[in-house]
Specification:
Sig_transdc_resp-reg_receiver, 5 strands, single chain, Response regulator receiver domain-containing protein, five-stranded parallel beta sheet, alpha/beta, CheY-like_superfamily, transcription, Rossmann fold
Length: 121
Amino acid sequence: MAKLLVAEDESALRMLLSDTLEDEGYETDLACDGEEALNMILSGAYDLVILDNMMPKLTGYEVIEKVRNLPGKERVKILMLTAKSQQTERDKVLLAGADDFMSKPFSPFALVEKIGEMLNG
C-alpha cells in the first residue's frame, strides 16, 4: 500500500488523519511543522504528502516551493489542506505546485476518497 506523509500542526487532527489513513491500509508518517515535513520528504520516499497550509517554521506553500525544486522529488504528489475555500485560494494552491487541495473542515472519508483518486488517477 502507499506511503503517506501527514504534515499538520494541530495534534488532534494529525492523529485523526493518521488513524483514519492507517485504518484504510496506508502507511503514514507524521510531521508537526513545515520544517520537519521538508526534512522527512528529503530523507524518505512518499507516494503522497498531505500538507497543512498554515504550519510553524515553514508554511505549506514554502514546503511545496522547496520540494518542487528538489531533483527527484519534484513530482511527489501533494494535497494541501487549507482553511480557506475560495476559488482564488484553490488557484493559488495549484499554481504553487500542489496537485490538489481540500478546505477545512472536511470529512476524513472524503479525504480518503481524494487520496485514492490522486494515487490511482
